[in-house]
Amino acid sequence: MRQLICLSFLAAASLPVFAASPTEVVRQYHAALASGDTAKALSLLSPGVQIFESGYVEKSKDEYAGHHLPADMAFAKTVNRKVLKGSERIAGELAVVMQETDTQGTHKGAAVHMIGTETAVLEKKGDGWLITHFHWSSRKAK
User: Fold this and answer.
1) What pTM was estimated for this model as a whole?
2) CATH number where 114 lies
3) I want to staple 95 with a disulfide (CB 3.0 to 4.6 A). Which of 29, 122, 124, 138 is the partner?
4) Residue from 76, 48, 43 nearest 62 by CA
5) In a domain, 99, yes or no
6) Domain range spanning residue 111?
């Protein structure tokens, strides 16, 4: 019995540790926004991340952190974002995650119900993935 327990432990310990998939990294990013975890959100972004939203561009992680991130966190804390459809494509060191979302809640006293689209481009760094680009678009739900 003791040998069986030791063998089971060694087998489990020798299993490879799998890094989060690109889709999971994007999910972690949105969870960090919703929980107000600035450090976690920023840790998932490449230093040169570019974020496109409503015709504007944030040109780096530092620019985003100093400008739009606080507003994104304040918004994410007050709404519920649900992924309706999603897909992931990986080609070597790059991945694209595309999602359609439904976001509902109340922000600054106003009801929010939006349908959104998101494209995230990620780059493989070591055993993990970093977000190098987001493109967000949304419209009011009917």
Assistant:
1) 0.86
2) 3.10.450.50
3) 122
4) 48
5) yes
6) 18-140
Does residue 9 belong to any structural domain of this protein? no
- For the stretch 80-125, pLDDT in tens is 999 999 999 999 999 999 999 999 999 999 999 999 999 999 999 9
Domains in the chain, number:
1
* Cα separations in angstroms, 100 against 31, 87, 105: 16, 9, 17
Q: Is residue 114 part of a domain?
A: yes
* 8 inside domain: no
29's torsion region: left (phi>0), alpha (psi -120 to 50) or beta?
Answer: alpha
Query: Burial, 97: exposed, middle or buried (Cβ in 10 Å; 0-12, 13-18, 19+)?
Result: buried
Q: Using an 8 Å Cβ cutoff, are 112 and 139 in contact?
A: no
Distance CA 40, CA 38 (A): 6
